[in-house]
Design a protein that fits this description.
Largest sheet: 2 strands, antiparallel
Distance between the termini: 50 Å
Helix content: 40-55%
Strand content: under 5%
Shape: globular
Order of helices and strands: HHHHHHHEHHEHH
Radius of gyration: 22 Å
Number of helices: 11
């Protein structure tokens, strides 16, 4: 046995002992089986749950959107953007760009308080779990995220980091051409996010999240992606040229151009 193997074996014995001491009487069986099968066993229940969701990214995405659907569209909420130049921007809960998913429960006016997830709005229980398996009846007041929602958020804001997983989901076939995906294949939003902001901003909030989740993600070969981005850039440029005269009017201008954050659309999707 090599020194590395000896170190791993000793480390896992200590981690397993620590995990056994910390485990409650009730714990998700799938999470425990996953933890014990890892090359390096997580030493705490919380780390075991985080490891489980990282390994089940697509499941975390579906769960986060399902929890958001359970919360529903917050009354009186509309999708707005903030500006980093505005005073109090950091505390507003608003994103500076439409490329980030809208998260109404991060805004002070709609926050549900301690023990509720700031992404989906549902109660957070022990170890960041989304169900009260322990019968406590009250959420964990020290938690602000579900472990699954953390994983889903990372996918939504940086889908390119998960290109390997998304390739496997498509059986290594380009979503646009049907050809085999090359090593240089890229992640793309089927409906570009600038169109989501322009055409769907008044949709119910749980529906909006689907544009960042797996229903709107695809992996395409780079040549296809470049062509798609070129067409989208041309369409946006034409719209800007048509809207620019109206933008000079104090009233009645196209909302996309009255909005100071519309400049974000200059970047290609």
């Amino acid at each position: 046995m090599s020194k590395t193997s000896e170190w791993r074996a000793e480390r896992n014995v200590a981690a397993r002992a620590r995990l056994d001491r910390a485990l409650p009487a009730v714990f998700p069986g799938a999470v425990l089986r996953h933890a014990l099968a890892r090359p390096l066993i997580p030493p705490t229940p919380r780390l075991a749950i985080e490891s489980y969701w990282r390994a089940h990214l697509l499941r975390a995405d579906r769960l986060a959107r399902a929890l958001a659907l359970r919360s529903g569209h917050p009354e009186g909420w509309t999708w707005r953007l903030g500006s980093i130049q505005d005073a109090g921007f950091k505390d507003s809960g608003l994103a500076a760009t439409f490329r980030l998913p809208p998260s109404p429960f991060r805004e002070p006016a709609h926050a549900r308080g301690k023990g509720h997830c700031c992404l989906c709005g549902q109660p957070v229980y022990r170890f960041g779990w989304h169900r009260d398996l322990w019968g406590a009846g009250v959420p964990n007041k020290n938690a602000r995220w579900h472990a699954a929602c953390v994983t889903a958020w990372k996918l939504w804001v940086a889908p390119s980091d998960q290109v390997k997983l998304l390739k496997a989901r498509q059986r290594h076939r380009c979503a646009a051409s049907g050809k085999r995906l090359l090593r240089t294949a890229e992640v793309d939003h089927r409906v570009p996010l600038y169109r989501v902001w322009r055409e769907h901003r008044n949709d119910p909030w749980p529906t909006l999240l689907g544009f960042w989740g797996t229903p709107n993600l695809q992996v395409v070969n780079r040549v296809v992606h470049v062509e798609k981005c070129g067409l989208e850039a041309g369409e946006r440029a034409e719209r800007r040229r048509a809207a620019r005269p109206a933008a000079q009017l104090p009233d009645g201008a196209d909302p996309e151009w009255r909005d100071p954050t519309a400049r974000d659309e200059i970047a290609a999707d």
